[in-house]
Amino acid sequence: MASHRRPKQPGRARVGVFTLTAAAAVALTSQAAHADPQTSKKDVKEKVDKLYEDAEGATEKYNGAKEKQKKLQKQVENLQGSVARGQGQLNKMRDNLGSMATAQYRSGGIDPSVQLFLSSDPDNYLDRASAMDQLSGKQAAALKKVQTKQRSLAQQRKEAADKLKDLAETRKELGSKKKSIQGKLSKAQGLLNSLSAKERERLQQKQERADRDSQKRAELPNDDAPSGKPGSGRAAAAFAAAKTKIGTPYVWGATGPSSFDCSGLTSWAYKQAGVSLPRISQAQANAGTRISSQSQLKVGDLVFFYDDLHHVGFYAGNGQILHAPKPGANVRFESINNMPFMFGARVG
User: Fold this and answer.
1) Beta-strand pair 302-305/341-346
2) Is the pLDDT of residue 222 over 50?
3) Which candidate in 4, 34, 262, 310 is catalytic?
4) Taking the alpha carbons of 135, 137, 139, 142 in that order, is the dihedral positive or negative?
5) Non-local CB neighbours of 57 within 8 Å, separated by 6+ positions
6) Which of 19, 144, 149, 160 has its CA 20 to 30 A from that of 282?
7) DSSP state, residue 258
8) Residue 323 a catalytic site member
9) If you average pLDDT over every residue of the chain, what do you get?
10) Taking phi first (over 0 means left), then psi (-120 to 50 degrees means alpha), and beta for anything else, what does residue 67 get?
11) Number of Cα atoms under 13 Å in the Cβ half of residue 325
């Protein structure tokens, strides 16, 4: 017979455990919900900063490839011009050689001994024969020149063909690097767009505040502005030129005067001081005397950052640098400790 006992009700202790467990789960879920946006914002900023750093490294490689393209293009044009001029000279030499051969043929149709026997003036014949020997000698020399010119032109044509091949490969490399940079910047923008409108506004305000603070420091009297040991006349002139570009936007691959990337700013500023610097930061690192210690830096010295030296700026004194920082930021003063410092270089 079936039992009609009532099922045991859970004890208060068990109810308490269930309630506490559920409450804890709700609390943890609630904490996670509140923590996620904050973590997300931090992660997004770190990822965006890393993408900008990678994009800047790619930009310097792009700049290097672009410089190589310019040099190759000039070399190809010079070689092609030289080949064209050489071909004109070769054609002229061939024409002269043909004229000499024709003259020799016309004068040498009869056996020389018969010509001497029939000649009414043997002395005149001997003079003409001597002239023919000289003509034959000139013809041989001209033929040698033609052969030398042909070899030279063949070598120049091969060199031009090799340069054209390098140029085509460099153009392909440029396209690849440009695509890489645009991809990184696009990905960074996508991450920024994933933030809420308020978070994006806060980040924008932070950028604008940094730009305003930098502008204020630039406008301070000399006694209060960032300062340090004065550099050489050229370094001081280059630094002064760079200061006039505070507030100018960073644009990858730009060399001024209305926008700059990091090495674009330094090369432009030194150009205003009469110094020609290489285009890319890695090459600029070898442009002057290396300074390993920050304490030895002078205003206007170049300063290099990161292991691969993909970022460069000016030392501004008091632990500050003046540089074109990254996409979305303007030329400004910042702490030298914001990036891993490698060394400085004193130019001039």
Assistant:
1) antiparallel
2) no
3) 262
4) negative
5) 306, 308, 310
6) 160
7) S
8) yes
9) 77
10) alpha
11) 21
**Lowest-confidence region among 10-24, 239-253, 301-315:** 10-24
Give CA separation, 292 vs 216, 220, 278, 342, 344, in Å: 30, 30, 21, 8, 6
3-state SS record for 99-128: HHHHHHHHHCCCCHHHHHHHCCCHHHHHHH
Angle at 38 between CA 36 and CA 43, to 5 degrees: 90
CB atoms within 10 A of CB 345: 21
Residue 159 token pair: 């060199």
Burial of 163 per CB tally in 10 Å (0-12, 13-18, 19+): buried
Report the half-sphere exposure of 313 (CA within 13 A, side-chain side): 30
60-97 pLDDT tens trace = 988 888 888 888 888 888 888 888 888 887 788 777 76
Q: Render pLDDT for 226-284 as a digit per residue (tens, 0 to 9).
A: 555 666 789 999 999 999 999 999 998 999 999 999 999 999 999 999 999 999 999 99
pTM over the 0.70 mark: no
Separation between Cα atoms, residue 261 and residue 331, nearest integer Å: 9
The answer to whether 262 is a known catalytic residue is yes
Percent of the chain predicted with pLDDT > 90: 31
Question: Helix, strand, coil proportions of the chain in percent (round to 5)?
Answer: 65, 10, 25
Question: From CA 218, how far away is CA 214, in angstroms rounded?
Answer: 6
Pairing of strands 320-323, 332-335: antiparallel
Per-residue pLDDT band at 225 (split at 50, 70, 90): very low
**φ, ψ for residue 261 (rounded to 5)?**
-105, -175
| CB contact set of 199 (below 8 Å; sequence gap of 6+) | 37, 41
* Residue from 164, 174, 152 nearest 76 by CA: 164
CA-to-CA distance for 287 and 150, rounded, in angstroms? Answer: 42
